[in-house]
Design goal:
The chain is an all-beta fold. The chain has two helices and 62 strands. Strand 32 and strand 33 form a beta hairpin.
Length: 756
Amino acid sequence: MAFFLQVALFAFLFGANDSRPGDFKVVGPGGGGAMFHPTISPHDSSTALVSCDMTGSYITHDGGKSWRMFNLRGVVEFFVFDPLDRNVIYAQANGLWRSQDEGSTWALIHPKPSAVKSIKMSSDHSDEDLIADPDPLGNITAMAIDPGDSKTLHVAVADAKKTRFALFVSRDRGEIWEKQGDLPEQASKLWVNPVSPDGHRVILIAGAHFIEKKSDSGIQKIPLPLVEKVADISVGFRTDSRPVIYVAGDESAFSSDDEGAIWRKVGLGPGGGKMRAIATSLRNPDTAYVSYRELEEGGIKWLGVAKTIDAGRTWRTVWKEDSSPAGKPGANIHDAWITERFGPDWGENPLVLTVAEQDANLAYATDLGRTMRTTDGGANWVAVYSRRSGENGWVTTGLDVTNAYGYHFDPFDQNRQFISTTDIGLFRSEDGGKSWISSTMGVPKDWMNTTYWIEFDPTVKGRVWSVNSWTHDLPRPKMWRKKGIGDYRGGVCRSEDGGKTWTKSNDGMAETAPTHILLDPASPAESRVLYVAAFGRGVYKSTDGGKSWKLKAAGITQKEPFAWRIVRDGRGILYLLVARRSEDGSIATDGDGAIYKSTDGAENWSRVSMPEGSNAPNGLAIDPGSPGRLYLAAWARDKGEHGEGGGIYLSEDAGKTWRRVLERDRHIYDVTIDARDPKILYASGFESSAWKSSDRGEHWTRIAGFNFKWGHRVIPDPFDAKKVYITTFGGGVWHGSVDGDDRAVDIVTPELQPGR
């Protein structure tokens, strides 16, 4: 526990320009996923933070030119800057964290480290819950700091069942908390009026159905506009102490500068418009921005951002995009690759807006793939998630929010590399990973969301196959718990020009979500044998290079089997991994995953035993010199605090018996073998770690420098034996050395600390 307190609950992060252990860097085009909670420093307009729903958080100190990703063990719900000390920042994830050096290091302040008894992380996503006693607050849902005394912290909290809500205050930076009163429901925002007198601060608290004002005279309820639910709210304060309140709800927006006595509805003209995000400046509240879509003018539906400079009395559009198929972005929208690639198909007005406290002309807007910034009051909006790299494509600024499945190398051109991703499809580099361009030309539009894998012909230059689907994020349960496989769309495409263009190659294959493709290297070049794992259907086989396909499911007993990965050993024996279709911690049910084996080219399948207590195979690697030696990546069942039945298992008799060789990490996504040396293995998973073994899997050490919460697979760098690529679920692709200095304060799930 002493080690846990000293190391595990102190997360060491490096400044935006500092190097990680192993010099790990993120590679890729940038952006590509939803971003939230943009927050600008009131002391330095060049410093800002953004979080995503895939556990990553990001900080810039140069106005978005570069970002550094960091991991606070979970999704950050809000950031708060200390109003007096520029070095101090707070972030709420699975606990309340504080940085005292502008985001370089973070320490847990609630719950207190001494109160933490354990961490529960048994769920499918290995989400981490701090089990603490005492825990006077529960979950913090909103926070504000006294602008005249930054030792005074105000927080809104909710209990674990979300049935009791309250307001607390600490006057010693979070050491001791005092309850101030109950709240009617969960609060999402808090503000301390910076113009109200010291010692007599006025606080505004807001939730989905209420706004309250707390002052020396008591609690005052502020009337809401006529909306069913408040979707977004922002408040600023004039120099005379009066608040200006902006509310978005029911796809409308309103403003009030008389504490709710009168609400003015935002009007953008006769064409209406639907609103969803709104923001003002804390100290310049007459200026605000609102996100809109479906504003009809001239037979066109527009989307973008509108602005007011008179507290909501009048509005004008400052970001206006034609959302029709032939539409083009406005001349003042300086986007990166997303508009270039998807155009109006992206069709996205900002999810979240924020405005700088000290400068109402400075604002950030985030959506499902981008972060945009304006410094001139909306006259121009500039992408800060990616930048153009010469004529060769785009390069990330560090703001990567992509789910990457694989990192692939063209066997005939070492500079041609690929990333297979969710939401943005396949990306290609022609300069060794320095810059990236979209590589889905020809893929059917309703398959284009995700490229799960690609496979190169080893002897025919330029020939590549890809498996693509509109259904993303498999095998995670959120993709199948409510809908059946009948909604899955996708199939196989083939390229003859090295992945630049594609043609559909799906004859005989039902619409499906294909998650893996495997080529038999022993098959003739003119009639390649290929296998596809079709999630929810089984295995498809082609004997004519992918021109036609037949379902091969004889012996597979699951109904609608979640066929996930296929592996071939040196003798030609195939192994199929069927993903688990339960998430309740059960075992020995119809929802169990399974391993199957075929000795006749997928014509017949037979069961291979699973390790005892395990029912979720996720990855399999086979020793190239010893085909009976199998390495299994297993996903834990939701049982106990850490989950059961997960980790890495080793079989030395082709799956007849198993023994666990890595237990500390129980949500392992995949195991890979270094083709240069089969004694060296790598693994990663959803517990903030990647692993290396140098003795054929018998012992494992953590790779320093990689700490993204949700890792996928480790791919050895074919051009540098000391480096690897690590794909992630929401953090792009990481590239660095496996020999970095293992600093004790690097982020890692507690049970995975070296020596524990």
